[in-house]
Amino acid sequence: MPQNATFNTPLAERMRPQTMDGFVGQEEIVGPKTVLRNLIENGQLNSIILWGPPGSGKTTLAHIIAQTTKADFIGLSAVMAGKDALREAIERAEQNKRLGQKTIVFLDEIHRWNKAQQDALLPHVEKGSIILIGATTENPSFEINSAVLSRSRVFVLKALTSQNIEALITQALKDKENGLGQENIKLEPEALTFITELSYGDGRVALNTLEMAAMSTAPNKKGQRIITLQIAEQARQHKALLYDKAGDEHYNIISALHKSMRGSDPNASLYWLARMLEAGEDPLYIARRVIRFASEDVGNASPYGLSLAVAAFQTAHMLGMPECNLALAQAVDYLARAKKSNALYAAYGKARKDVQEFGPLPVPLHLRNAPTQLMKDLNYGKDYIYNPNVQGPVQQTYLPDKLKGREYFTKQQGETWKDYE
Prior knowledge:
- This protein has helices at about 10-15, 25-30, 35-40, 60-70, 85-100, 115-120, 120-125, 140-145, 145-150, 160-175, 190-195, 205-215, 230-235, 250-260, 265-280, 285-300, 305-320, 325-335, 345-360, 375, and strands spanning about 50, 70-75, 105-110, 130-135, 155, 185, 225.
- By secondary structure, it is an alpha/beta fold.
- It has four domains: about 25-155, Rossmann fold (3-Layer(aba) Sandwich), CATH 3.40.50; about 160-235, Helicase, Ruva Protein, domain 3 (Orthogonal Bundle), CATH 1.10.8; about 250-335, Zinc Finger, Delta Prime, domain 3, CATH 1.20.272; about 360-420, no CATH class.
């Protein structure tokens, strides 16, 4: 491999394009005549937030914006930088402003800054001292202060397509200055497909895998480095699944599991369960959500579902992962296939509404316990009918007088009471 100092830099960094024409993917936001493309080319860009998965081009796009607008680029990482680094950046920006030059402050992983740190950006954004470009893999609605959001425009980047990844790899193999064009590399079709598909839309991962494969492949007698599927597999090894247990993907996937079970799709339900478990989610968290589902969406239409869900929770508690995965899968599969009813969920909601609206209504006298003579003298328990002693239906009210005749639990369309027996 080349000994030039340039090649001490990772391939993904060397191949970072400098102009919009070399940027791969995200055509919906930076393609010709798009809003962001026009703002960049006309030099009218204001503060923006770039939200997208890893390797989708957020940092590259920020560099290209700075190049195109001829702005001074200051890159900060929210993981490493604090208020001191921001203060230095602002001082530099103020000096640039006096000289008539724009300053872009690129804050990578902006969601990692706390509220006070994010608030420190506001006066400088409002004054126009800096153009803020924040990059985040997390949902800005949850992770970025509303004040910062209101002064920025959010652009959503998507994971790169297979065609985008293939284009990046092809560029890297051809580029003789920054890529691997001088290395006489032949990437077999099966290896190309493997790297493309197993990068999961992450351009950086694809290029890193390609570089690792190239570095570990010795030239043959003809001086050619042939990257086979086996070499690509060894270079790729294991890719951690995109999943943040405290972030947006966490809520997206648990929602997908819940809705798949509700939609009676056991295959999708098992897939989303596996996505969480294999990414390291706490099995007890999943088990708690499954128990909730058993009551909320299945209820007494299939009452065994709650028992199975609780048993799965107990199994997860006793065994942990990976031994508890099948118990959770068993509960999820059963609940997905089970007959559904949200009658209990709706009924409790109606009862709760009445509690909130009418407050602590008095218990009817005939339902009150009367352990003392005083209570009996006050008619506690008077005229109460003990149901087991009566043949046939009992004419007795059990709700407060103000709610007499209220019905909370109602049969859903097409149901009979036998459906709940």
